[in-house]
Amino acid sequence: MAAPRAAATILVLAEAPGKAFEVLMIKRHSKARFMANTYVFPGGCVDEADQEYAARIRSPETLAEYRVAALRELWEETGVHFESDGRAGVGSSSPELGAAQLARLTPFAHWVTPKQEKYRYDTRFFLARATNPAAATLPVKGDPKEVDDVRWVSPQDALMLHASQDSNFRLPPPTFIIMQSLVLPSQPKGALNLISKYAGLYGSEEALQAMPRVEPVLDVGSQPIRIYMRPEWTHLPPGVHSDGPAVVHVGEGMPDLPAHQPDAPAAKL
Fold first, then answer.
1. What's the average model confidence in pLDDT over 111-128?
2. Of 15, 7, 26, 6, which is closest to residue 175 (Cα–Cα)?
3. Which secondary-structure segment (H or E) carries 108?
């Protein structure tokens, strides 16, 4: 069984007309060894250079090396970077990261790849809001070696595109469940309010210890593969409630399902 590698991913939020916000997403390359042909948030593994960089700038933030990795991968995969004041921009040269940029990231979720997978990642998810009003119109462009598409999309639109039988827009289970959580009635409305909530929940080292660690279980004995999500495994914090999904197909449409009880057999699609 492979030990999960440390990884980080970032949900860049931008205000958009008529919507609470849009999220920057990438479509992983068709030849990617993990989650190929699916739309995910920019991110990747935390490497030794990220750890050294975080130590060098002496950031006081929690999970500093994860923040560095998330911002580095964001720029490498989409060209998007953050200024110290939170404005998002696009550039062809590697941006200089400082403590101010790292402070713009808010811990949001913690997921671990199921033990049945060949490639496993222990991933920290972060939220970051672009403060410039026109951020969602930035001319983003993916790295052709890693990314087939880059786009801004609202959580609602992402879920509808995923559900469409005629769409090539597919969300892997963690991304689907996180997108679904962003549209729950119990979530704050708007990017700023959402980030404020999670900053209050996980703003300290001690508070991070209470963040749910989600490690789903895959059923690989039948086709299609299914991922099992029990209520106690949810990444949602106290005060944010969801009734599903309990089981979702990997790579297929994932409709809402009632959450099953811990002592009951999981429903199957």
1. 88
2. 26
3. strand 106-112
